[in-house]
Design a protein that fits this description.
The chain is α+β, with helices and mostly antiparallel strands. The chain has one domain: Alpha-Beta Complex (Aspartate Aminotransferase, domain 1). It contains five helices and six strands, in the order αααββββαββα. A six-stranded antiparallel β-sheet has the order 1-2-3-4-6-5. It starts with 16 loop residues before the first helix and ends in an 18-residue tail after the last helix.
Length: 166
């Protein structure tokens, strides 16, 4: 799973947060059983994703589709959507195609992007094995994928080094 990176300096190398999370699904279950991982349920999923999105440089919350949709953008480009119009609180994020496929296979609460390009977007559903750390990593990865596509002069951060401690 090429192309992943993280905003957390304790993850080995500047890339690999999502890939590592997918590879360690069993390890996460073991940590959860020991009480060391907090799963996100219900609106907690959206709250955790929103908290992380608001921490990212240049991120802004907009409502172009009405008050039922929280749309997070960086320099005018969408990287996260949150809504409950589906009768459950969901979060929609951009993902590299290979990562999106792997995440859908590894987590029952990850599905193709709701009303988005199914190859490049994923939807997170509450109530399963998604934990706060994975949600933070997926929001950060979505943000960095969008930042990477911006002209260099508009980028609020360097996507190749953001969060790597350098």
């Amino acid at each position: 799973m090429e192309g992943c990176r993280t905003a957390w300096p304790d993850v080995p190398g500047p890339r690999g947060a999502v890939s590592e999370a997918v590879r360690t699904v069993g390890h996460v279950r073991d940590r959860r059983a020991a009480g060391r991982v907090r799963s996100v349920h219900g609106t907690t999923l959206q709250e955790r994703a929103a908290e992380r999105a608001q921490e990212l440089p240049g991120a802004e919350l907009t409502h172009p589709f009405g008050e039922d949709w929280d749309v997070y953008k960086v320099r005018g480009k969408v990287f996260m959507l949150a809504t409950a119009v589906t009768q459950e609180p969901i979060v929609v994020l951009k993902a590299a195609p290979a990562d999106a496929r792997s995440l859908r296979e590894a987590h029952e609460d990850v599905s193709p992007g709701y009303h988005m390009n199914k190859k490049h977007w994923i939807t997170l559903h509450p109530g399963g094995d998604l934990d706060e750390e994975l949600v933070d990593d997926l929001v950060t990865e979505s943000y960095l994928l969008v930042v990477e596509g911006l002209p260099r002069r508009l980028r609020p951060v360097d996507p190749t080094t953001f969060g790597s401690g350098s």
